[in-house]
Amino acid sequence: MKTSVPTKGLVFNIERFAIDDGPGIRDLVFMKGCPLRCQWCSNPESQNPYPEISYSEDRCITYQECGKCTEFCSQDAITMSDEGKIKIDRKRCVNCKNCAEVCPARAIRVLGDYLSIDELLKIIEEDSPFYRRSGGGVTVGGGEPLFQAEFVAKLLKQCRNIGVSTAIETCGYASWGDVEKVCRHANLILYDIKHMNSNKHKIFTGVDNELILENVKRLSHLLPEIPIIIRIPVLPGINDSEENIRATLDFVRHCRDKVEYELLPYHSFGKPKYRQLGREYPLSDIKVPTSIDIERLRGFCTKD
Fold first, then answer.
1. What CATH number labels 8-49+112-302?
2. Which of 229, 283, 275 is nearest to 252 (CA)?
3. Residues 259, 248, 239, 227: is their CA dihedral positive or negative?
4. Which residues touch 299 (CB under 8 Å, ≥6 apart)?
């Protein structure tokens, strides 16, 4: 049975003129929704497949001086905090957006907008001169873009139809049908492998790694014309052992003769977002790897 393509996709951010997610200057489209719950996730707002409310306490005018959000909350989910600002009862909140619409300081925002292909292409076409001069294009990430496979496949196809190079950032945790549907329209695949030990992978991401590893093998054999860059997040005490790094590279070298890889050092820039979403940060004690740590791991990668 033929399935219809969603008319709109849920996007939580568009970063224009990005330079770190594929060659050249790029537009980076972040899709919302992800099947993983990586404990180090720097974009927790990407995880849930629906728009949600974010609250920045430092922007709040205070409950006494403003209080508009409490007047317009449809669920009585907003009350005064001990600091005189506000607090949101996330169990009562239904993400109705009323509070965000009336907040004069933009302390409350809605994360996630439903955008059509045409709306995204309008932005992409505005930046196309920069792509062509720099050899860049569009990268679709997330969240997990395969979570909205039908929409993303159509977006990538339309981009290529207008001469814009495409890339996808993926963890590969999806059915093969969705993987193939999307990736065949990509000029480049940035593929995360977070841990080779399936049990540890499940502990730190919520899912095992069998499907992820099987999909990268199938991509390598069935779509050999599309370059794949393996991305390894470097997480001290979690996956930065010589055993894990070398096992990852050994695995992907058996998938393809020529392997490109990137080591992505853990950073804590996303930590404040958890508080803004009313969540606890899972890895509060993890350290940021130093440049010496990264060079040590690169040395493992070059050993025979």
1. 3.20.20.70
2. 229
3. positive
4. none
In this structure, are residues 40 and 235 in contact, taking their beta carbons and an 8 Å threshold? yes
Closest CA to 166 of 150, 146, 189, 198: 189
CA 193, CA 191: separation in Å to the nearest integer?
Answer: 7
Domain ranges across the chain = 8-49+112-302, 52-111
Concatenate the DSSP letters of all residues of 132-166 into one string.
HHHT-EEEEESS-GGGGHHHHHHHHHHHHHTT-EE
Task: Tell me: cis bond preceding 143? Omega within 30 of 0 counts.
Answer: yes
Tokens 């004690």 label which residue? Answer: 285
Please give the pLDDT value at position 69.
93
| pLDDT tens, position by position, 203-253 | 999 999 999 999 999 999 999 999 999 999 999 999 999 999 999 999 998
Q: Is the dihedral of CA 304, 217, 219, 222 positive or negative?
A: positive
State whether the Cα torsion 171-174-179-181 is positive or negative: negative
- What CATH number does the domain located at 52-111 have? 3.30.70.20
pLDDT tens-place string over residues 135-150: 899 999 999 999 999 9
